[in-house]
Structure formats: C-alpha cells, structure tokens
Design goal:
Length: 138
C-alpha cells in the first residue's frame, strides 16, 4: 500500500473546526488523486473524468463556506477582497486543468492542488480566520 501523500496536522488548523474539517477532506481528495497515479495514462484519464465534477464542486462549496464566515464576522474588506481573488484564481486554474485534463498526469494534478492549498492556508486562511469567529447566524 502506498503511504498517504499528505497528512493533515494540527499546524494546519485555522481555529475553526468546520473549516479544518473541509481542509481535511481536501487533503483526502488529493490523497485519492495521488493513489491513482498510474503509468498507464489512459487509466489516469478515466479516473480523473470520474472525479473531476465532484472535485470542483467540493472546492466551490468550501470556498463559499469560508467566504460566508468572513462576511458573518466582518473581516477587513481588503483581506476579504484578496482572499476571494485567490479563490477565484484557483477555481479558474482547476477549470483549466479540467478542460485539457488529458495532458495532465495525476502526479502533476496532485502537486498543483496541494501546493496551492498549503500556500493558501498559511497565507490567507490563517490571516482571515480565528477561533472566536461565528460560523452561523444561530
Ligand atoms: Fe481560503
């Protein structure tokens, strides 16, 4: 059995359990991509075609969770603005991979996603969220 590609650790926590759970799920999605790296490129293509819609909708859903929490907690406009730009750019990038996915191998896809997530959690998410924030109106 292959080892996990990436393991979620406490150092990735942004202080909000809901967001941490979603990040863990993103790590799991990347690990699943990693587990499907195959020297037979046609198998990678078939796998990616099966998961691509679920991947993109999970990412979109996660970003809207984060953006809602920022709105609810009156996060500084400049931070929200920059944060949303990064989200939009990533969705664009994922769509670009999807539109010519036959050129991509799963190793490249896994690295692209995980590199982005690591960077984004450190630079944006940790800067935007803290443990005292409300996650819903209730
Ligand atoms: Fe984010």
């Amino acid at each position: 059995m292959k080892p996990n590609f990436i393991q979620w650790e406490e150092k990735f926590s942004v202080g909000i359990p809901l967001i941490d759970e979603q990040h863990k799920k993103l790590f799991a999605l990347v690990n699943d991509i990693y587990a499907h790296i195959n020297t037979d490129h046609s198998k990678e293509i078939a796998y990616f075609e099966k998961i691509k819609d679920a991947l993109v909708s999970y990412v979109i859903n996660h970003f809207s969770t984060e953006e809602n929490i920022m709105n609810l907690n009156n996060v500084d406009n400049k931070i929200v603005f920059e944060h949303k730009i990064e989200h939009a750019q990533f969705i664009e990038e994922v769509n670009r991979v999807i539109s010519d996915h036959k050129k991509w191998d799963m190793n490249e896809v896994a690295f692209l996603i995980i590199e982005w997530i690591f960077n984004h959690i450190e630079k944006m998410d940790k800067n935007s969220f803290n443990a005292n924030m409300r996650v819903s109106n209730e």
